[in-house]
Write a structure and sequence with these properties.
mainly beta; Chitinase A, domain 3; Thrombin, subunit H; five-stranded antiparallel beta sheet; four-stranded antiparallel beta sheet; 1 helix; 40% strand; elongated
Length: 142
């Protein structure tokens, strides 16, 4: 049998859950996820879990936040005055916005709090600080 190794392109089905059992993502109703092992296309812990699997294998693995989306970084949370928002945007909780930095790059933030005067934005990935458990089925190696 062929074991999945760095450089292989693989297809997997997966279901991701949080520690409380909440499913945050699954490929079960979609095509399998395809990526190259060692290509940095998925979080490190997920990629590490697939290495060494055979086609047809099913594995459940828990990935620490450090090996997933990292720890929640308070420096990525910013409170801005509401008047700095464009007039055509009415802020809503959990709304995601794309901000452009002076160097032209952009990043996504999520609105996590709204007051009469301010809006608090979080630039962390929504799953930052969370340990993630994945059930992974290796479908194909090419």
């Amino acid at each position: 049998m062929t074991l999945a190794k760095a450089g292989d392109t693989v297809k997997v089905h997966y279901t991701g859950t949080l520690d409380d059992g909440t499913i945050f993502d699954s490929s079960e109703e979609r095509e399998p996820l395809e990526f190259q092992l060692g290509g940095g296309q998925v979080i490190p812990g997920f990629e590490d879990a697939v290495v060494g699997m055979n086609v047809g294998d099913i594995k459940t693995t828990r990935i620490s936040s450090e090996e997933a989306y990292g720890l929640h970084d308070e420096d990525m949370v910013l409170t801005v005055p509401r008047e700095q928002f464009p007039p055509d945007i009415e802020p809503e909780l959990d709304q995601q916005l794309q901000l452009r930095q002076p160097d032209g790059s952009s990043f996504v933030v999520t609105i996590i709090d709204i007051t009469e005067d301010n809006v608090t934005l979080d630039g962390n990935h929504p799953l930052a600080g969370e340990a993630l458990t994945f059930t992974i089925q290796l479908v194909e190696i090419s």
